[in-house]
């Protein structure tokens, strides 16, 4: 929390291009529509901004977006952006300070879930994955990206086959993360 609080103010400047590359590569906007969506480790809201830019002016797109992050400063920056550029009526955003290790939600609350470049911060990545699965409805699409250097492929693959009916792994050379596209059992 302290690390991200201390660096929040230059996060976008340093990481926006890197994060955008991941969102674009996965074409994440296709998963955004009429859903109750969780962004675990949402940071300053780059993923949300990306969705907004893709769907500018499209009133058909509806959604309830919940961003969870441990860092108050990252969330504050996210909230400031929402104040500068308010959401269209059909999109509701809710920001919560919380821990991905103990997500503050009931089981099966979400119909889509994302976690970009955040899980590697947990003491055990697998606990974070379990939590994402617990709070997602059956059949939910979950997109998870984890810094390559933090991933033990063998462990992760056996974890994923426990929780997901299917998962696809994208290990693109130009990205610093390995990305998993999964469906909850
Ligand atoms: C590299 S940033 C990624 C932010 C965002 N997902 C993006 O795509 O720009 C990692 C984020 O994970 C958050 N984080 C770290 N540990 C966390 C935890 N245990 N629970 C919730 N968020 C956490 C940090 O505060 C930070 O905002």
Q: Structural class, from helix and strand content? A: alpha/beta
Relative strand content: 25-35%
Number of domains: 1
Bound heterogens, unique: S-adenosylmethionine
Number of helix segments? 6
* Most strands sheet: 7 strands, mixed
Order of helices and strands: HHEHEHEEHEHEE
Strand order of the largest sheet: 3-2-1-4-5-7-6
Report the count of strand segments.
Answer: 7
Helix content: 25-40%
| Global shape | globular
Assembly type of the chains comes to single chain
Radius of gyration: 15 Å
Query: Poorly predicted ranges (pLDDT <50, ≥5 residues)?
Result: none
CATH homolog superfamily: Vaccinia Virus protein VP39
CATH topology: the name is Rossmann fold
CATH class: Alpha Beta
Overall pLDDT score: 91
Give short descriptive properties of this protein.
globular, binds S-adenosylmethionine, alpha/beta, 6 helices, 185 residues, seven-stranded mixed sheet, 36% helix, Rossmann fold
Task: Report on the architecture of this protein.
The chain is of the alpha/beta class. The chain has one domain (2-184): Rossmann fold. It contains six helices and seven strands. A seven-stranded mixed β-sheet has the order 3-2-1-4-5-7-6. A hairpin with a 6-residue loop joins strand 6 and strand 7. Helix 5 (125-135) runs parallel beside helix 6. The structure holds S-adenosylmethionine. S-adenosylmethionine is lined by residues 4, 15, 19, 41-43, 46-47, 68-71, 74, 99-101, 116-118, 121-122.
């Amino acid at each position: 929390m302290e690390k991200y609080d201390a660096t929040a103010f230059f996060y976008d400047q340093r990481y926006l291009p890197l994060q955008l590359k991941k969102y674009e590569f996965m074409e994440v906007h296709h998963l955004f529509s009429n859903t109750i969506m969780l962004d675990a480790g949402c940071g300053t809201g780059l993923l949300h901004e990306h969705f907004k830019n893709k769907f500018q002016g499209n009133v058909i797109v509806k959604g309830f977006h919940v961003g969870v992050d441990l860092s108050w400063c990252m969330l504050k920056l996210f909230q400031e952006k929402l104040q500068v550029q308010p959401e269209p009526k059909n999109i509701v955003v809710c920001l919560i300070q919380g821990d991905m290790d103990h997500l503050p939600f009931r089981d099966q609350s979400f119909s889509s879930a994302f976690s970009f470049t955040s899980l590697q911060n947990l003491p055990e990545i697998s606990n974070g994955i379990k939590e994402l699965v617990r709070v997602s409805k059956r059949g939910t699409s979950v997109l998870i990206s984890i810094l390559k250097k933090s991933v033990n492929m063998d462990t992760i693959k056996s974890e994923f086959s426990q929780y997901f009916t299917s998962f696809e792994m994208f290990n693109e050379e130009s990205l610093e993360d390995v990305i998993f596209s999964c469906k909850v059992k």
